[in-house]
């Protein structure tokens, strides 16, 4: 019987919560056969330093870019069943609105995808 892959897009994989979430996934029995994990990060180098074993997983795809980059966010979200946001703000710096920016970008990308799928 074929196993159904769940596709999960995770934003913020290099932070404390995000990296703990990724580690939790890869420790789960059957992870390689049941989940496709799509990670959006600002720095693939940082992710590789934090979780070097990720390169051994063919079911993990990493997308590097800014959260306001609709094209990269869209690639990360493509065919995702679930979206996990592990972003957070450590400081209350005026003008920094990471969570708002990501929410806006995801909403715009999903709207674009919906419009595109109704045209086909």
What would you note in describing this structure?
With 120 residues, the protein is of the alpha/beta class. It has a single domain (6-119), classed as Rossmann fold, CATH 3.40.50. Helices cover 44% and strands 18% of the residues. Helix 4 (70-77) packs across helix 5 (98-119). The longest helix is centred in the C-terminal third of the chain and has 22 residues, at 98-119. It is globular and about 35 Å long. The mean pLDDT is 89. One of its GO terms (molecular function) is oxidoreductase activity, acting on the CH-NH group of donors, NAD or NADP as acceptor.
Topology:
Layout: E1 6-11, H1 16-27, H2 31-34, E2 35-41, H3 44-50, E3 60-64, H4 70-77, E4 82-85, H5 98-119
Parallel strand pairs: 1-2, 1-4, 2-3
Q: Summary?
A:
With 120 residues, the chain is of the alpha/beta class. The protein has 5 helices and 4 strands, in the order E-H-H-E-H-E-H-E-H.
The tally of strands reads 4
Biggest sheet details: 4 strands, parallel
Helix-strand topology string: EHHEHEHEH
Which structural class best describes the helix and strand composition? alpha/beta
Distance between the termini: 31 Å
CATH fold node name: Rossmann fold
Domain NAD(P)-binding: 12-116
GO molecular function, one term: oxidoreductase activity, acting on the CH-NH group of donors, NAD or NADP as acceptor
Protein name: NAD(P)-binding domain-containing protein
Family: Belongs to the avfA family.
């Amino acid at each position: 019987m074929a196993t159904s892959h769940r596709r999960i897009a995770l934003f913020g994989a290099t932070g404390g919560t995000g990296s703990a979430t990724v580690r939790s996934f890869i420790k789960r029995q059957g992870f390689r056969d049941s989940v496709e994990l799509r990670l959006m990060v600002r720095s693939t180098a940082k992710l590789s330093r934090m979780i070097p074993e990720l390169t051994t997983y063919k079911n993990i795809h990493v997308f590097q870019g800014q959260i306001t980059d609709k094209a990269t966010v869209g690639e990360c979200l493509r065919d995702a069943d679930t979206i996990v946001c592990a972003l957070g703000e450590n400081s209350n710096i005026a003008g920094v609105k990471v969570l708002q920016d990501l929410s806006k970008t995801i909403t715009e990308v999903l709207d674009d995808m919906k419009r595109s799928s109704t045209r086909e």
